[in-house]
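Researcher: Please predict.
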Amino acid sequence: MTTLLVIAKEPRPGRVKTRLTPPFSPEEAAQLAEASLADTLHAVAAAPASRRVLVLDGSPGPWLPPGFEVVPQCAGGLDERLADAFAHCPGPALLIGMDTPQVTPELLTVDFADCDACLGPAEDGGFWALGLADPDPALLRGVPMSTPVTGPLQRERLVAAGLRVRDLPALRDVDVAADARAVAALAPHGRFAARLARCAPVARR
């Protein structure tokens, strides 16, 4: 069975979701980040997995459900941190971030019977999920991260390594206020949507 990895930052004001300010305050942006992370972790908790691991920059808080191992992120760029997360997985693993609170347990239920890797593209050009049947950190190191072509470049790296790649559905990351509204509409009963509704007067400015 697959290890599910979530790479995340502790939701502290001024350190997370800074592109949401404005219209939101740093405190509100952190509250939205916490709600997004909580929704993500609860989806992971409900998906089948051999292990559930939170790869965290910071310290865990009350938003962390039971059943997760917590390991610190290594130093370095995002490619190095993603690579290091996979390095600790001896078998199949699927890694996601904290920016897609609309994710469901069904989307996270993957197997590698007919592929060696799976990639979930993000609408901004990145990717929201990466799964590897045989995790090899070298598949991530050196891939430019946080660019409009990160997803395609990562896919090219996998294909160039001779891997059979299955594409997962595209999802929208929460980066700016318009993303927050769109994603909340996709998961109206989640923690993220509820938190956004409490910030709605600010979001309409």
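Model: The chain has a mean pLDDT of 95.
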